[in-house]
Amino acid sequence: MATPLATRSCLLASRGPPSHSAASSSSWPPSSLLQLGRRPSRRLHSSSPQVDAAAAPGKSGEYRPSFADDLLLAFFRSKMVEEVGWDSEKPGYAGLMEVANRLMVKGKSALETEQAAIRVLQSLFPPLLLVLYKALLAPIGNGQLAAMMLARATALSCQWLMGTCSVNSVTLPDGKSWSSGVFVEKCKYLEESKCLGICINTCKLPTQTFFKDHMGVDLYMEPNFEDYSCQFNFGVPPPPLDTDKALKEPCLDICTNARRRRELGRNSSPDELGCPQV
C-alpha cells in the first residue's frame, strides 16, 4: 500500500525517522513500534532505459530490509492498526498483511475501503508538509520536479513494502518523457496478499487519489497480475475507472477464494471471473 499501501510513505525515509505527535515518548523509536516491526525471517513500456537504480538486493535479487526499513514497517503498521482498530499477533510483514486483510473486509464497500486507506496515507505525513508540497513544489515546471522527486523518494524508501525497485522514464500524454517512473520488479504486497482486491482497493486506487488530492501530483499505477511487477507513473493521470484495465482483471491464480470457487465449479463464464472484491 504501492501502498500498497502507497505507501507510499515515500518521503519518510528521506526525512529520517518520523516524529509522531501522538507518541508520548520523546525518543525514537517507541518500544511498541519495535515490537510491531519484528521481522521474520501492464507495465508502462518506455523507450528509455532505467536511469537510476535504488535497490539493495540480496540473494536472487531479493531486497533485504535494513533496521530503518523495520522502523518504517512498524510505523506504517501502527497507522493501519489505528484505522482498523485491530492488530495481528503475527510479527513483521506477515502481521501487516493480516491487518491489510482486516482493513479490506472491514469496509462495507470498495469505496469505503479506499477512503480508509487514504486516511492511513494521510496519517503518515505531517499535514503541513502535504500542504506545502502541493502549494510550492507541485506547480514548478508543470509538475515535473515534484513528480521526479516522488519517484526517487518512492524507490529509495518504499522497498521494505514492495521489494526491489528502480527509477525509470515514462511517457506523458503530451509525448514528453520524464524520469518520474518507478518499476517494482515483483511487488511483495501483491504477492503476499494473494488478492487482486487488496491490491486495487488498499493500494492502487487510494495511492493514486492520495498523491493527486494531497500532494498535487498525478499518478497512474499499472500492476501486472501475471508476474506481480508494477509500474508507477508519476505525472501521468490515471484513466477513468471504467477503462482502467487493472479493474477488469480476473482473480489471481494464487487467490485461495478464487481457487475454491473454481473447485466448486463456479465462475464458468468470463463475466464471472472478476474479483468480487473490486
From TrEMBL:
<dbReference type="InterPro" id="IPR038938">
    <property type="entry name" value="D27-like"/>
</dbReference>
<feature type="region of interest" description="Disordered">
    <location>
        <begin position="1"/>
        <end position="61"/>
    </location>
</feature>
<feature type="domain" description="Beta-carotene isomerase D27-like C-terminal">
    <location>
        <begin position="160"/>
        <end position="241"/>
    </location>
</feature>
<dbReference type="Pfam" id="PF13225">
    <property type="entry name" value="D27-like_C"/>
</dbReference>
<dbReference type="InterPro" id="IPR025114">
    <property type="entry name" value="D27-like_C"/>
</dbReference>
<protein>
    <recommendedName>
        <fullName>Beta-carotene isomerase D27-like C-terminal domain-containing protein</fullName>
    </recommendedName>
</protein>
<feature type="compositionally biased region" description="Low complexity">
    <location>
        <begin position="13"/>
        <end position="32"/>
    </location>
</feature>
